[in-house]
Amino acid sequence: MAGPDHGLDQTTTIKISTNATQYFIESYYAALNIRQEPLSSFYITPCAMSGGKSLPSISFNGEQIRNATVLQARFEDQIPAASYEVKCYDCHVVNPNYVAEGTEGWPAKTEKNMTILVAVSGCVKFGNIEEAKQRGFSETFLLVPNPVAAANKQRSKDVKEWLIQTQNFRIVV
Asked: How far apart are CA 37 and CA 41, in angstroms?
């Protein structure tokens, strides 16, 4: 069964979103654990929506974070080293007809014309990993296609194919 207007059958859409989610989770949480790759590389370029709301929208334990650069500084300056362990995740295509900025006019059948909702839960230890108390976390992302990757026919390890537009992180008590 083809999804609305995007021409991809349901099996293909599920495969694309599942593969994108798995790769995103593996690389994002590795970056959080190792802290060698800048977090800002996982986010869309900051912009303002027509109503004045800024994107990306980042919520960290209920606090709105202005952008990925501020989040990066928070991790470097205020949050001790951490070990994140993803226990489970799920994903769903939210908008199968999304048109990323810079990709207008591309064929509707492209696999990059979708947004993906990702729900993650797991455990995290802050500070001395050997002695730290394990805490649960829940995190939700809305991933959008990276227009730079979509425009680049040759895949590059340095260019992320999917970027965070919206994120909500919570420590589970």
From this structure: 8
